[in-house]
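In keeping with the milestone schedule agreed at the kick-off meeting, the structural modelling team has produced records for the first pair of proteins. Each record is given below as a sequence line and a structure-token line. The laboratory manager (R.T.) confirmed that both were archived under the project's standard naming scheme.
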Amino acid sequence: MKIVTVLGARPQFIKAAPVSRALRQNHQEIIVHTGQHYDANMSDIFFEELNIPKPDYHLAVGSGNHGKQTGEMMAKIEEIVLNEKPDYVLVYGDTNSTLAGSLVAAKLHIPVIHIEAGLRSFNKLMPEEVNRILTDHISEYLFCPTDTAVENLKNENITKNVINIGDVMYDAVLYNRELAKEKSQILEEAQLKKGEYLLITIHRAENTDDPEKMKSILQAFSSTEETKIWPIHPRTKHKLADYGLNVEEIPNLKIIDPVGYLDMLTLEANARKIVTDSGGVQKEAYFMEVPCVTVREQTEWVETLEGEANILVGTDQAKMTEAINKEVKPEYKQLFGNGEAASKIVEVLEDRLNA
């Protein structure tokens, strides 16, 4: 098989690592990096740490309004696909890069492989929700991470080539967890102790584009004296500056630049609790068996809500503060496969190829 893989954002690099390893044993993969995440701490370090082959094409699209960004990606991806003539175009998740790659392939009658298909937050105000719905409806192969995702697709009358293969992010965590213990020095560098700090990540547009929501989030962080570490997304940092919101007034808060994958795994595994609006971090918290507080009204990872392993709080200051301080002892279950999702994906594609 010859497959063009379209990547653009940090979570996609993590998902791609195990799949690329499995694919490249017997097949040809062409990696297209759209440049949606272009900061070195959000992009280059992931390719290095995860040992992902360097992109064959780097489109350097950068940030911008959704239409402009997606349109520019599509024009450049189309040129590559016409030149490379792949058997499949493979996309991950729910970003503008995902939508751009899948639309180009569908228009050129090339089958789309969607990894992490079937997720739904049921909130179409989120650009990610629109991206994932459209991608699922034009994909030929839909690899789902959970039974819930399969059921979501069934409810939309999508049943052909829908397979629950588990979560490729779980593959990545299992593969890199021990490596992180050996190599990461982030706890020493940030002077953090296991189980004695909150890890914070906030980046979603539904939060960062609303100054009142960001103000409420910061007030919740100010309500606790506990040590807090926040590897801040460049976009979030700029938004806070635009709103005139000063994070330096928050007690015991350590603001650091975005960190690499191994450092992030270490920060997650050793936190007392994680506060996030990231879909990927919600899952990683579950994998690491660390309680999570999600600063959103809905989550596509509904499985993590069982037993208060993950608590949805929106941006209500009182709810955030209560959830941060609440002591919970969830039971964690094996909901996301057995860590062999990537090899299963390749097996399915090979079976279809040889059928």
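The second protein of the pair:
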Amino acid sequence: MINPISDLIDSVLAATRMDAVDALRAFFVFASCTILSVSLSQSLRSRFVPYGARATSTNSQPNPNPSLSKSSGGSPVTRPLDCLAALKVPHGYFTQFYIALVLSSLFWAVQLLSRGAAFQAVTTRIRPERLQDVMSLNQILLCWALMLVQGIRRLVECLALSKPSSSQMWFGHWLVGIAFYVAVSVAIWIEGAGTLLAHEYTLDHIKITNVPSLRTFLCLPLFLFASGLQHDCHYYLFSLKKYTVPAHPLFSRVVCPHYTAECVIYLSLALLAAPPGEWVNKTLLSALAFVAINLGVTAGTSRKWYAQKFGEESVRGKWNMIPVVY
């Protein structure tokens, strides 16, 4: 029977002419470079980067986004950009990111246990040498479970801690977000494909009997701690009656501490998923690079928005996202 999902996966990987692991890493790196390139151009940044409240001009001048200007039709160069920037979706579509992550995680759990067609489509595109030094089964199970927990928590937060809003985001943000969470649900296990191919696993193999390694002992609390901090930030921001300068201690030295926590979450996963002899899982490290660059650009936009709306004093002495670094 034809499996449209496995056929699609095989077609995409075949089109890249790359090893599946390299293709996944390349996607994260390419997306990171694209976001960074857009952020470096004022013309592109003003059109495509801000979203939600950050897209609203707070000064007395006209909105700097040319797509909202009615005074002229724009130049032949900017007109297509204006049309592209006008393609927006509701900001509430953020919820779909975590729906995609949860569903993808569950889909791959079934595929990995059953050695389904989609799993076979990915593994047949991995070079044999890549199937040697790989993640253990315990690592795969732990990291998959933590990624699922992350997706469920963020989905619940989006549903429970969101207020009705008419704000929007560029549709490109939405497309890249969906693609990222679908890709990261594969990145969490792909460097353990050799382990999964070596034996047939069932639910009976899911046992927590081994003593945690030092890496797990250190990095699992890091994941849980960062998740707790992020939830605390999200709950606090939700509790604010209106947009104002956050007074929560976590915001005292960092403009966007919830972004900091997100980076720590992915860092802990990259460390937990490191194959034998490696310090870090390189595929998840490339995903972390995407997260850091994407949120770093947004944190910079948030800083400018706070400075415009509440004055430069509101952000003076604060780091955007990573203390001492940025």
